[in-house]
Design a protein that fits this description.
Elements (H helix, E strand, L loop, with lengths): L2 H13 L1 H5 L1 H6 L2 H26 L4 H16 L4 E5 L9 E6 L2 E3 L12 H6 L4 E2 H8 L3 H7 L5 E7 L2 E8 L10 H28 L9 H16 L4 E9 L2 H8 L1 H18 L5 E6 L2 E6 L4 H16 L14 E9 L6 H17 L5 E3 L5 H11 L1
Parallel strand pairs: 10-11
Antiparallel strand pairs: 1-2, 1-6, 2-3, 4-5, 5-6, 7-9, 7-10, 8-9
Helix pairs in contact: 4-5, 4-9, 5-9, 11-12, 12-13, 14-15
Length: about 375
């Protein structure tokens, strides 16, 4: 029903004989005020559902954030909005997005965890005043960091598994504060936002390795196969890096499997820092990792591989007692329209180059070259 239809219905109601006859009585007992109140609530719900529909129809978590920011900004005009959430519940990774005037900004917040906030939001699951929130939490390193931006409100992103994150709102730019009606709207909207984010988090978890947070082998092979098909129809060249932790078994045998896990987690963080947003870093299995580099020639892929190798050999793993320096060996292959190779063949070529790196002393990068492939394959097969 559009606005014009609603106006016509109102006119018909007010002009009916029974209403005209009893107008004074109806007004005295508050019927008209109540009808107006119901009409306003209906409009409020329409606005809420329109905003919620915009949020839940977004394809990525980043787009969900953008849609939520647009809805909140249009209704409340906060000085800023900050989203803080954990992409993977089993890990400590924290993602932070800050907005001012609907545009992403960097507020230099270095929050390392939201787990200490979980008991609070199990008792207070809706929007709350930040001062009350911080007073209840008490002395906490992350609270001190948040206090530097002086939030007005904090809103939890909750799910069946607990706290996924929080949303912070700055003061209303008009200086009027937030009314109870506005808080109710925020609470309802954030329930939709929470559900949308949780759905995408669950989907992401099916694509990622739980231990490292990188993409899993299945996703990598799917993307590699897609890239092989794409490259065959274009002039592009794409490369693959495969890497292996040198002497990884020694970490597990000498320091225990938890230390070995820490090595893998630290390596994953380093790899993510060393590649582009559009690249596909994955944990291929065990201590092997792969990176798909779309639209990257092999000479540039070699530079990326060497950058990763250097980053790793200069990275310290946080463990007591101190662990030996971690190093990696790498192999690189590439493919283009002229390359007659499947996804499996491309990966196998990179693996042959990796094998050559390990046989040549480790902690080095080898490029796959035509002519060496069959020889290296035979050597690896003979060693079984």
């Amino acid at each position: 029903m559009d606005k014009d239809d609603q106006i016509d219905i109102n006119k018909q109601f007010l002009s009916s004989d029974k209403v005209v006859e009893n107008y004074s009585l109806l007004e005295e007992i508050g019927v008209f005020s109540y009808v107006e109140l119901l009409s306003q609530k209906i409009n409020d719900y329409k606005n809420l559902f329109a905003g919620a529909l915009d949020v839940v129809n977004r394809a990525t978590i980043s787009e969900i954030m953008d849609a939520a920011v647009s809805q909140i900004s249009d209704n409340f005009l906060p000085t800023y909005i900050v989203f803080i959430w954990k992409p993977i519940r089993s890990r400590d990774d924290i993602t932070i997005k800050c907005y001012k005037s609907n545009k992403p900004v960097d507020l230099n917040l270095e929050i390392n965890s939201v787990s200490s906030f979980e008991p609070f939001f199990s008792k207070f699951p809706g929007p709350v005043n930040f001062k009350f929130f911080s007073s209840v939490i008490g002395s906490d390193e992350n609270i001190k960091i948040l206090e530097t931006i002086e939030p007005e409100l904090v809103i939890p992103i909750l799910g069946q598994s607990g706290l996924y994150g929080i949303v912070l709102l700055g003061n209303n730019i008009l200086g009027t504060g937030f009314t109870s009606k506005e808080l109710t709207y925020l609470d309802n909207l954030m329930q939709f936002v929470s559900k949308a984010i949780k759905s995408h988090i669950y989907y992401e978890q099916t694509l990622r390795d739980e231990k490292t947070g990188l993409f899993n082998n299945s996703l990598f092979m799917t993307r590699l196969s897609e890239e092989v098909v794409r490259v065959r129809r274009s002039e592009a060249e794409t490369s693959v890096i495969i890497m292996d932790v040198d002497h990884f078994k020694n970490f597990n045998d000498r320091f225990g499997h938890l230390a070995g896990d820490k090595v893998l987690e630290t390596l994953a963080i380093t790899i993510k820092k060393g590649v582009r947003v559009g690249d596909v870093p994955s944990r291929f299995g065990g201590e092997e990792f792969t990176v798909l580099l779309p639209d990257t020639k092999i000479d540039m892929a070699y530079i990326v591989a060497e950058r990763l190798r250097d980053m790793v050999q200069n990275t310290k793993v946080d463990w007591e007692p101190a662990l030996p320096q971690v190093t990696i060996s790498l192999g690189v292959s590439s493919f283009s329209k002229e390359t007659e190779a499947s996804a499996e063949m491309v990966l196998e070529r990179a693996d042959m180059a990796l094998y050559h790196s390990k046989k040549s002393g480790r902690n080095r990068t080898t490029l796959w070259e035509t002519g060496k492939f069959e020889k290296m394959k035979q050597l690896k097969t003979d060693e079984g």
